[in-house]
Every structure is written in structure tokens, then in C-alpha cells.
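Hey, does this match?
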Amino acid sequence: MPKAVKFDSYGGIDVLQVRDVDRPTTPPGRVLVRVKAAGINPGEAAIRWGTFEKRWPATFPSGQGSDFAGVVETVGDGVTNWRPGDEVVGFTNERASQAELVVVPESQLTARPPNVPWEQAGALFVAGTTAYAAVHAVSLRAGDTLVVSGAAGGVGSLVVQLATGMGAKVIGLASDGNHAWLRDHGVTPVAYGEGVAARVREVGGKIDAFIDTFGHGYVDLAIELGVAPGRVNTVIDFAAAQKHPGVKTVGSHEAASARVLAELLGLVAAGRLEVPIAKAYPLASVRESYRELELRHARGKIVLLP
């Protein structure tokens, strides 16, 4: 029997289980994919903890995961774009990608470029579309100065690359251990912590836009730095956005399409976007993978390999 990640109640990583499940059927218009790699994301951990119970409640038993890459096994009636053996990258809205098999509508798939590794392809959708939506939400233009918190994390590492690719000057807030990586990608690194506002002003001058991928007071920092609320976007601190009218909370949902995913994959394939992989775990080690994720120190993405 195929295996999938499941949990029966809100809680820490101890509620996560890898269970035998029935083999999914393939209804009309849908595609059954054998998963080769699936990303894990902070939002999934927050949902599992119950942090977003009112915003995004879980239905138990719940599966987990949105992004994946894999190989088509079967297709349902009416599917015209895919056939068994096709290598695809996609997403599910049913919290089900952290599994050996996943079923999705054919419109939620795009082809995997042959030179994009499985790990990068499977980890791209959530972080990539979040980053894509965030840079557009702050109306970024060439010549703007943008500050990014959590600049070496799963989303932040993609935000800074998309922003530099658009011609922006990017200041990345990150720990010292990530500064060399940021410099290598055209980003001016600044250490977070006490005195960060002064350090940002010293290297950045006037700050035009701010993207917060970390929370914990960075929206307040953006306002302190004089950024107009409409050019501040947080993908995590919804309470801070309510505190400061005009601050945006645009994330993956606003760019969740196979078209955007294909565009991002094209950048990866062309060598214009790197998807840093911090570590890959087997599906059976899902608890260990989320333990590392929730420490919030990984550079780039953590991936499960079913």
C-alpha cells in the first residue's frame, strides 16, 4: 500500500505519522502522480500547530503538503495534456503532496525541465509563488531599494533573486553565516538583531519597499524605516498588517497557478534562479524534517523524498 503523511489532531511534530493508505483512484480530468520530491513549508507547520485554525482549519485526519514533482502513473478520462511516464511539477490544494502518490487536476501540473533536479522542482511551488507574488505586491521597479527579512530562508532566498533580476538594489537581513551566499547573489547583507535599523540606513539610504518573510517585528521595522505601508508586504505576520493599515499580506494564493510555476521553472532551468536545498529527508523522517524547519535557521528549502 502507498504511504502518506497524516495527523489526527493539532500539535507538535509528534502528531505526524506516515501511514499506509488506499491507492488513490484517478477521476475524470485528474492525474495520478508518483511523487519524487515534496517541499515542506512553515505554513504547514503553523496549520498543524493550530495557529491558523480560524483562517485555514484542518479536517482530521489531515494530510499535509502542497508542492511536489514526480512521474505520471495514470490519467483520468478527458485528460489530454499528460500521459503515463511524463515528468511533472505541480501543486495540490488538498494538503496531500507529502505522500508516495498524489492526485491533482491536470491544470495544476507543468512539465519538469530536464535540467532542473527533482529536489529543486519539488520544493519550488509554495516558496516560489509566494516570492513571485510578494515582489509584485510591493510594486518593485528597477532602481528601487528593497529590504528582505529572512533573506536566506526558503521564501526569502527566492525573493532576493527575483528582485535583483528586476534591477532592484536588495538588502538582505540574515545571520552572518548566510552573508557570503547573499553577496554571491548580488544582495547586500545586513545582520539582524539590535541596531538593525541603523545598519540598514547606513547601507541603504532611502528604502522604497520591504518584504517580510520572517515575522517578529519586521513590519514595525519597515514602518520605522519610512517605507509607505502600501509597499510593505508580509507573508507571515498578519497581526502586524492589521496594526498598520495598508500593509499587504500577499502570498502564494495570489500566484498559485501552473503558469507562474512554469515561469519560475524556466528561470531555474536558465540558471537565473537558484532553489537552495538545505537538506533532503526520506518520507519516514517527516518529523525530523519539520524539527529542522521549525528551528528557522535553514538556508533555502527542506525536501521530502518519498
